[in-house]
Automatic annotation (TrEMBL):
Major location (coarse): membrane
Span of domain ABC transmembrane type-1: 95-313
Organism from which the protein derives: Paractinoplanes tereljensis
Subcellular location: Cell membrane
Keywords: Cell membrane, Membrane, Transmembrane, Transmembrane helix, Transport
Tagged with keyword Nucleus: no
Single GO BP term: transmembrane transport
GO CC, any one term: plasma membrane
Membrane topology, record value: Multi-pass membrane protein
UniProt xrefs under InterPro entries: BPD_transp_1_N, MetI-like, MetI-like_sf
Bilayer-crossing regions: 9-29, 101-119, 131-152, 190-209, 248-270, 290-309
Name of the protein in question: Peptide ABC transporter permease
Pfam family for this entry, one: BPD_transp_1
Stated family: Belongs to the binding-protein-dependent transport system permease family.
Length: 322
């Protein structure tokens, strides 16, 4: 088991290094002069030359990558051309909103996926039908439909923003400090975008988990457990769920990474102040350090998430480590 965990951690580091190398090369060969973009079109040639030396832009490519990797390891992803602030500072301001949105959406996806997989009642069939229809719609269309239904017609949920003071970890801070009014307001604002983000992942998780459960339920050891007189609850809890949860965990890890990638559209529609909006504003301005910084952070989240999921799977089912 220790060897398996070590190999997975080593593979994650290697993939992360490859990601930073690809992002660095694309950033180096992107059109435009980064120094002029940062200093402005009216900067003097002397100022441009001095800044190129400061940024090591005249060094060989391998040396520049070494400087970039060393700076990234210290948490320095460069300076934004648009905001003229450190990219890490910008990400620190925008990432908490995205993180809370994705966490709530992931919890919704797990809950809806479990309902999709396990409930065999009429209510479960209805939920599966609604989720399947929702998963076929593009996220922007699902978001607009949710705004029209739950905001314009029913008036149940707000359509934009985070509510109250939208800085930092709003839900976490209000929950820890016991500010229930702000927590309730923030929860109302996050429900609609989180549901839009959760529908497609819930279907993917639910379908994989449902297929795995059906396969395990027909296994010999489950029939033996029933023949011993165990109740269905005991059979499911002791012999079915643990042997079936591996594929569902794997899919959940993939979908969590996809959620971080899919927040760009959702955050723009709901005016959510996260890294999706930050990225959307950086692309038209050709703000390559910001674009590269967001790419590296999202890639790192995706890699780390799937590594952790692999480790959890190995702990849940030791056969995976073998």
């Amino acid at each position: 088991m220790i060897g398996f965990l070590t190999r997975r951690a080593g593979a994650a580091v290697a993939v992360l290094l490859i990601l930073t190398a690809v992002v660095f090369v694309l950033q180096q060969y992107s059109p435009g002069d980064p120094v002029k973009a940062y200093l402005g079109a009216n900067a003097s040639p002397a100022a441009v030359a001095a800044e190129r030396v400061t940024l090591h832009l005249d060094d060989p490519l391998v040396s520049r990558y070494g400087h970039y990797l060393s700076a990234a390891a210290r948490g320095d992803l460069g300076t934004s051309y648009r905001t003229h602030r450190k990219v890490t500072a910008d990400l620190g301001a925008f990432l908490p909103a995205t993180f809370e949105l994705v966490v709530v959406a992931f919890l919704f996806a797990l809950l809806l996926g479990a309902v999709f997989a396990m409930l065999r009642t009429i209510a479960g069939t209805f939920v599966r039908g609604v989720l399947l229809v929702g998963a076929t719609a593009p996220p922007f269309l699902l978001a607009l439909g949710g705004i029209i239904l739950f905001y314009a017609h029913l008036g149940w949920l707000p359509a934009t923003g985070r509510g109250g003071n939208d800085d930092g970890f709003l839900l976490t801070h209000s929950l820890v400090t016991g500010d229930w009014a702000q927590f309730g307001d923030g929860l109302q604002h996050v429900v609609l975008p989180a549901l839009v983000l959760a529908v497609a992942p819930a279907v993917s998780i639910g379908r994989i988990l449902r297929a795995s459960l059906q396969q395990t339920l027909s296994a010999d050891h489950v029939r033996t457990a029933r023949a011993k007189g165990l109740t269905e609850v005991a059979v499911f809890g002791r012999h079915v769920l643990r042997n079936s949860i591996g594929p569902g965990l794997s899919m959940a890890g993939l979908q969590l990474g996809f959620m971080f990638a899919g927040v760009v559209v959702v955050e723009q529609i709901f005016s959510w102040p996260g890294i999706g909006n930050y990225l959307a504003e950086s692309i038209p301005a050709a703000d390559y350090p910001a674009i590269a910084g967001v790419t590296v952070v999202l890639g790192a989240v995706y890699i780390v998430t799937n590594t952790v999921v692999d480790m959890i799977q190995a702990l849940a089912d030791p056969r995976i480590a073998l």
